[in-house]
Design a protein that fits this description.
Number of strands: 12
Structural class: alpha+beta
Order of helices and strands: EHEEEEHHHHHHHHHEEEEEEHEHH
Helix content: 40-55%
Distance between the termini: 54 Å
Length: 347
């Protein structure tokens, strides 16, 4: 059993950047605006019940079992010992790291928060709210039909009879929505507060349930398995960011902490020791970016770890978070507005 302390950055991966002292392994942790400190890996990238909804350990036990298998393989990989079949296992491990992280969970929360806040702002306008409700809440929509079934059963009539009664109302369903709109508008701030205040638990629950179905995305693993993997030894201290992996894609945003549908993948980078990185490339002649360490730092959200205290890394820690987001707030806002317009255009 793994207990209540769940590591979202595997300890066996952290140990590639650690110094052994006594029975412990110690890394240097760098955060923006703080001096680096040197804790045991037992206390890095860990949270109580991170993979649990009700203090059950099933998911974390499954992850721990998988880690045991990969840790053995990693010992060969860090020596540069790759077989052709290793590509599949490395690809699945990368997909797993991408999926399991606190980095992903925090980004998901940020997107949902921005999207929800802007959606509620749009719905606070009476005309927007009425048009959106008329667009989405038709008599045949699942949510409306479910509510009508409850009401019909409570009053001893059939669903068809209830709908027939509504059709007799002057103005019909549209008139009912118009009359209900002021009341719904008054309730909007309460509903908004409820949704936003529960966002942490909503995202956490969604992340855990998703990982219960699979601890790595098979679709993404298939994409990553098409790359050719090798061990690249660096001439400078390598860091492990809290995103753990970094993707290079053919777009204006060249480096990303997440691979998204539609991205044209060029390479993926997985730091494994203080001096080496597993590199998966579409084209083996392509050079590893000279600023790879900087890009790993920029894609980190809260912190990165390294094997040594280093003045250059301390300076670069100010760049943490520069490239860690899935999407900027303005992009999320534009997407919500576009979705609203699309919905209204289909009325």
């Amino acid at each position: 059993m793994s207990g209540e302390r769940h590591h979202f950055i595997p300890q066996f991966l952290q140990r590639g950047f650690a110094e052994s002292r006594g029975k412990g392994s110690y890394c240097w942790v760098y955060r923006k605006g703080s001096k680096p400190y040197n804790p045991n890996t037992d206390g890095i990238g860990v949270e109580r019940w991170f993979y649990s909804l009700e203090k059950e350990t099933g998911l974390d036990d499954e992850i721990t079992g998988y880690e045991g298998e990969i840790a053995t393989r990693l010992r060969d990989w860090v020596q540069g010992d790759f077989s052709k079949s290793d590509s599949t296992d490395i690809a699945r491990f990368i997909a797993h790291l991408e999926m399991r992280s606190d980095h992903l969970r925090k980004n998901a929360k940020q997107i949902f928060m921005h999207a929800s806040e802007h959606a509620f702002d749009l719905l606070s306008d009476p005309e927007n709210m009425f048009n959106q409700f008329m667009s989405s809440l038709t008599l045949d929509s699942p949510h409306v039909e479910q509510a009508f079934r409850r009401e019909a059963a409570e009053h001893g009539v059939s669903l068809e009879q209830l709908k027939a009664l509504i059709s007799l109302v002057p103005g019909g369903w549209k008139k009912l929505i118009e009359e209900a709109a002021p009341s719904m508008l008054m309730q909007m701030p309460i509903f908004k507060e409820h949704v936003l205040s529960n966002m942490d638990e909503t995202v956490r629950s969604g992340h855990i349930k998703s990982m219960r179905r699979t601890i790595s995305s098979d679709v993404k693993a298939d994409v990553y398995a098409s790359l050719i993997y090798s061990l690249h030894r660096m001439n400078e201290p390598v860091i492990l960011g809290d995103s753990m992996v970094l993707f290079e894609v053919d777009s204006d945003r060249k480096f990303k902490p997440f691979f998204e549908k539609g991205d044209d993948l060029i390479a993926v980078y997985l730091p494994v020791t203080a001096g080496s990185v597993i590199v998966g490339r579409r084209d083996v002649t392509r050079e590893v970016p000279p600023d790879l360490v900087l890009q790993l730092i920029r894609a980190s959200q809260d912190f990165f770890i390294a094997a040594v205290p280093n003045e250059s890394l301390e300076v670069l820690a100010s760049r943490i978070g520069e490239n860690s987001q899935w999407a900027e707030p303005d992009m999320i806002k534009a997407s919500i507005e576009e979705a609203f317009q699309d919905a209204l255009s289909k009325k």
